[in-house]
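for ur thesis appendix - Amino acid adenylation domain-containing protein. copy paste whatever u need, i formatted it the way the template wanted (i think)
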Amino acid sequence: MDCSEAERTRTITKSSRHKEMSLDSACPTGDAGEGGNYLERGENGDAFHHAEVTYLPLAAAQRGMWVGEKIGPADAIYNLAEYAEIRGDINEALFISALGQVAAEAESTRVQIVETQDGPRQQISPYYRGDFPLVDFSDDPEPHVSAQVWMHKEFSRPLDLAADLLWRCALIKLGPQHYYWYHRVHHVVLDGYGGGLLTRRLADIYNALVAGVPVPPHSFLPLAKQLEIEQRYHESSRYQRDQQYWKQHLQGIPEAKSLSRGGERSGGLRRSSGYLDAQRVSVLKDLGQQAGGSLPQVLIALLASYYYRMSGEDDLVFGMPVSARVSREQRAIPAMMANAVSIRLALNEQTTFVDLIGQVASTVRSSLRHQQYRYEELRRDLGLLEGGRQISWFGVNIEPFDYDLHFGGHRCEMHNLSNGTVEDLTIFVYDRGNGEKLRIDLDANPALYSQAELDGHRDRLLTLIDKLMVTPEASLATLVWLGDEERRRQLRDWNDTDQALPEIDFIQLFERQAMRTPNAPAISCGEQGLTYSQLNTRANVKARQLLAQGIDSSCRVAVAMDRTCSLLVVLLAIQKTGAAYLPLDPSAPAERLAMILEEGQVDLLVSSGSLAQSLPGVACPVVTVEELLESQGMISVSNLRDAELPSPIGPSSTAYIIYTSGSTGRPKGVMISRRNLLNFLSAMRAELNISPSDKVLALTTVAFDIAALELYLPLLVGASIELVDRDVARDPAALSERILQRGVSVVQATPSHWQALVDDYPQCLSNLRALVGGEALPGPLAKKMTELTSTPVVNLYGPTETTVWSSVMTLSGADLDSPPIGRPLWNTQLHVLDGNRQLLPVGAVGELYIGGAGVAQGYFNRPELTAERFVPNPFAGGKLYRTGDLVRWREDGVLEYLGRNDFQIKVRGFRVEAGEIEAALQRCEGVRQAAVMLKQDPRGDGRLVAYLVADTNADGKQLESGTLRETLQQRLPDYMVPAMYVALDELPLNVNGKVDRKALPDPQWQARQQYVAPRTELESTLAAMWAEIFALDRVGIHDSFFDLGGDSLAAAKMVARLREQLGRQIPLAAVFQASTIAELAQQVEQHLEADPLATVLPLNSGGSGAPLFCVHPIIGLAWGFAGIGPYLDDGVPLYGLQAIGLRGEETLPQSMSEVASLYVEQLRQVQAAGPYRLLGWSMGGIIAHEMARCLREKGEEVEFLAILDAYPFAEGKPMERRSDSQLAINTLEFLGLDSSNPPDSMVSLTDRLCREYDILNMPMVRDIQQVNPAILEHVGRVLNNNVKLLRSYEPKHADVDILFVEATATSRADLLQHSPAVWQQFGRSLEVHQIDCHHQALLDPSQLTELGPLVATSLAAAEGRRQS
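the 3d part is after this line
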């Protein structure tokens, strides 16, 4: 190249800061050297003008990088960049000429990646298409800063793989004897090892040119050789051995952990740097020699120690980049060949740093022997490709390359600028082999780590290194490395929560509020409500009644009641006596309730009349709230005086005992003191600032401790409570409607509950203050809620053992991405401790221990378990509760929740011990072993999955999911019943012989039956809905909702959408009665077609056998008979006969014989001829008997007549001679209901019976009211008429066999001939069966388990007699 050519191609860019020029502007006279022919120079004299472009497939390492760029963040950096700082004279022209020769020798410098019909290809140009600029900053005031800005801008620029230069260098001049050689390459064409090859070759060429000696030949091999070696490897047995090694080595690895605050990963790069001086390096080398490890292995052990202490992972896995060059040929190819191997280390409380060095040395040596097996293939083998899962998010990169380089006799120092975007956190250590200091870079994803957080990690790492060098023989787990300043921050600054509490307790605060605002509404439930004065006076009366029954502060009173205003009255009354209440969920299985009552050793059980008979038998006395109401007499309504209390009440008296799931299979009772409760309510009052104008929704069962906030906090500030029943709480549509109609302003719910509202009823959130707790709050849900609500979302955290909530966080900004659990409440201390109960630094993962005024008294009658979980507080007096929750501090004193350290699970806010479910499973027939895990379904929702090993004698039916689910529903609450059941030959075990839960396979979230396509529009609608709910491609009409992973919340969500689409009320129970699309579609169609007020109501019209007709009770409705259907043979249709007049017809029947004749006429439109089957409950039994007599007179056969607990009136006591008030009493007695506090009119009687039959809360009634607002008036009119019909009726003999079912727990009235034997004179024969329940409970689900099979068996027997 001559100067005229250099002048022609010169490009000079000038600015006030620097000038940039090509080789030509710096070229002296004469040639630039033999390496100067690397540029294309016009049409003449171009040595490469006729050379062809070469195309090669991508190597395996390049494919992974190429795919990563295609699908990764747009701002991701894939460029590697560094610079060599040279102090001394540099011949600029020769240096750039040397770069040109490197480009001519190494094909990777001339590669671009192009996309062809055959996929991506390496396009190798015969010449380097760019130039090598000389960038001169020597005139700048701060040349180093200017150079850094220039380099950063250059390597941060995204590259077009097909058009841009993927390898680029520049010579940067800072002064007469001060240069930077800048070296940047896209990672897809070159790795760090390859970059080192080029760097050393550059030095060789330049030094030869400067010395004027021949340049030594290069030893680079072409890129095609890399592909050839790769192919040989894949076809070799070594490939198979490597694959097998890694699959075994990484079997059962833990889920990849991160030290970040969470969030969506981005591109870019964040770095924090530190140094280890030469003295420290020397100490580390000596340690390595003693422990049998090299310096790089010692450095790896240091970084592993840090990851271990910060993450708490004793099964530690991290990635380590390797060159993947195991042969001499591979080491001669500058290319992208790098791989990552996974270093897996086993640590425990005894592991020392010296031990770890030895383990690292051994593990690294083994890993390097198998380093060719690609990381991408290993992720595929381990099933981690889906969802971007990784083997580990931690990375360690020790760069021991020999960078002791000289350019023209001048030493240079290498400086790394970029290793590209990292997905999480990788720590680099650069060992230049010069015996001087080591540089440490912490490279992090900027979306996951702030600069302050990253600098904190750097400082803690350097502190840990100093500690380890001093005490290498000490246990890593017991190493104390928290500085005094950080210790002060944690113990004092972040836990400075001391606040004075009132001298009086919650009950007295409520009583004062009742005096201040006596007429303000305190609580409403449906149409009922109480003012503060009414609530307080009724609680006072109930408290005195309880005292009269011997209840005092030493007692425990169980409460199992309907969700009405009386529930709160009773809870307050118990606390006024000083006793502890033990709340029960009446819907829980009887077996579980019995277990809790036995464990709790209760002195009294308070229940509702409609529930008392369905509860399990208990040894203690039982009283209903109705009985308390009837016996209140002239009891004082004033507040209780101390003199009335048999024993004093103090702050340490137990307020309530909440039973939670127990790992042994038995629930455990948490004892909360009155001071615990007072502190909690005082803290939440200060935190939430609820005002008297607020209306707080109470939707949580009292058996879940968070109900305390909903029921008690409003009473301290004069706010009102809107109490909803279980049906409304479970139904998002009804719940949304209640929130809007009642003007609710504050709602506390679990994320699962909120998700259902956000998805389908977002409008109800617009004016709410949203409180979320009970389980981890997902970021997307938090963001959506924030968009919908007018005030910030409040995230709450706390175990039952520390009184409801212990920390709080009002969410905004970046906290919405991964919501933290916040800071401690009043008088609460939060500590993040390691396994030795030592404080951990910011960012380190440890177990959360909670101290302070919220810590419970312990577990009732479980001293060993109490001692295990409630431990001495080493930082202050009292106890700490060890939560088992994994957390870490943020730099700002906020806690982040990370999961559990045991097998406890949170489901819909309820704390669940896997052991309790496993114990219940192992009691199921055919199950030998069981394990339960919480797994994420395709939509990201947590579902319980049961893994089962069958008994050798088990049959297939016993392990069917439907059979197991049905059995567990009798033993466990619905939220503890697994959604999926996976059969295994054996449960996987770890090296200690315990169940390896990490190795349990993910369930197949897919349809299990052979696919059958929808046949109708409704089936298509349901199939599309289910496919969306379960994130499946398709769902067949015979797939089970529950086998797909559905639960009650998912069912409620689906039914809500179905109601919206169809515009009709669909009962939630339909999903549980018909679990497949085909079955559900049939039920829905029947429901849509059926008139719920028709005289003949089809309850199950399928089947071709003789139907069973069920006659209504006195209320006139026959809906309750639907529960009998599941017990009947498939061929038996089921119909209900309902009263005429429910639609408002003017003419009503005037006699019982007229009723019977009308019903027979309707019945014969369904079944023209006998044999007929009749069943009647209560008044319906008397009507059914009269119908049977009528049919027999017409010559028809009646093969079955069942009378359910119905009795004729006593002779000489006809009702027609009595007054209306007396008739009301007689009606109650006829129904077996308490009549000691009777209604004063027939209208009042109608209201009472509507409540008794729960008419007002039936979803179908609410639906009917929308089109027929007078339905309740019509029901009242029918009821009044039915009472009149019973006044004068006396049964006559019918030629039929009678099956009589007696409810033995019903009180007897002299008005009735209260004996089944009375029916002997009115039939051909009489068979009596007894069921131990109240008259009104006969059709309850708990009694149907006995009544249903009895009816089915009797029908079959009747049919058998007829056929014989």
